[in-house]
Amino acid sequence: MRVCILGGGLCGLVAALQLSKSSEVTILERDGDPGGCLSSYQIGGAWVERFYHHCFAGDSHLLSLLSEIGLSDRLEWLKGTTGSFADGKIYPLNTPLEILRYPYLSALDKARLALFTMRARRQKLEDLDTVTARAFIVDRLGEKIYTQFFRPLLMSKFGDREDEVSAGWLISRVAIRSNRGLSGEYLGYLKGGFHLLIERLAEIAGRQGCVIETGTPATRMERKDGGWVVNGTRYDQVLSTIPPQEVTRIGGPELPAIPYQGAACMTLGLDRDITAGVYWLNMKDPAPYGAVVSHTNFIPPERYGGRILYLASYFQGKMEPDLPQRMSDDFCSRFGVAPESIRWKKMAVEPFAGPVYITGYRNHIPAYEQGGLFLAGMFSLPNYPERSMEGSIVSGTEVARRMEEAITHG
Ligand SMILES: Cc1cc2nc3c(=O)[nH]c(=O)nc-3n(C[C@H](O)[C@H](O)[C@H](O)COP(=O)(O)OP(=O)(O)OC[C@H]3O[C@@H](n4cnc5c(N)ncnc54)[C@H](O)[C@@H]3O)c2cc1C
Prior knowledge:
Layout: E1 2-6, H1 10-19, E2 24-28, E3 40-43, E4 46-49, H2 60-68, E5 75-79, E6 82-86, E7 89-92, H3 96-101, H4 107-120, H5 133-141, H6 143-158, H7 167-177, E8 186-190, H8 195-207, E9 211-213, E10 221-224, E11 227-230, E12 233-235, E13 237-240, H9 244-249, E14 260-270, E15 280-283, E16 291-294, E17 307-315, H10 323-335, E18 344-355, E19 369-370, E20 373-375, H11 389-408
Helix pairs in contact: 1-8, 1-11, 2-11, 4-7, 5-6, 5-7
Bound molecules: flavin-adenine dinucleotide (FAD).
């Protein structure tokens, strides 16, 4: 059997790991390296993700995969602190005292918010797909808590589509972040970077005969004799992990378009901490980025010989060409950083960085097989209502099983 996988991100590599045990697998990858949203830069001798990443204790499939491929001993759990930047000030929001001191919500609002957070884990997410996050929060907690607390988070992630996003997405985020003790939240990271995961998957699949053609976008495909011809080569089965609208555009079956947004992420090398020890700083004040993610307030800076910080921005449609400049100018003036003190700067832009989980999104999710094509990735059901490494691993594993079954049953 000849199998082609479109896209060498995490989902494509996980599927290849399984499929290459019994089939001849070729991965076509648009970029110069595999990894997709989980690819990394090499800075000095260290690997740094192009987009900030951590994992959660509940990511059971990711943890099993790490064990299967011999990387469990690299997994470490470190404190991931959060905070809010409001009216020009950093407010750490980790301990009960810090939360009590936060001036933008009353004590009563905080108590209601705490109760709401504790209940979030019991909510059935599928029931919340048709309600907007805004309507749900305003109904349960009132306009003030929405405006002061939730709206900045939604704005930083979805921009002006904030009021279209479903309560399903928001509650899943609240639930995952509620899994913390009094000492704060512990997040997972691979010592040496998630690059190790991508590298190991590619290496094992390669040993099993899988060929990864990097710098090779799939540009044309057509259905032929029960199989597919992709970029002029015939395959018995094709798995697409690229956005459904992209696969339709290059000749695949007609698929419903997934509402996507882009991510623009600037990574800066610095010589000092800017966010007062906070790992994840949400911007309550409007800025051309929604969060400042100080990677080295999560991972010890000694490993990199300096400080690493991300400016995280999402965009709808096309990225405005001046966004990178606005991001760095704003950051320098707002946080008092001299531009010449920035040791190095990298910019990652991905137009299909994640679905926008608008109300009714669940109905857009494509099945694993449609029109003779297999499909899985950050748009699949295991990635609802938020895409993650875990979701792409589950969807890659499940689709590979379906493809094997299809071979067995003819
Ligand atoms: C800013 C950001 C932060 C994130 N943080 C976290 C986090 O902290 N924790 C977590 O669990 N998850 C996080 N994620 C999500 C996680 O990275 C993704 O869910 C996962 O990596 C997606 O893998 P994938 O293979 O499904 O998709 P992708 O990584 O998008 O892979 C698709 C691949 O297809 C390739 N491609 C596209 N078009 C073509 C074409 N025409 N031909 C050939 N190849 C093509 C792309 O180059 C890419 O390599 C984050 C994502 C982003 C963007």
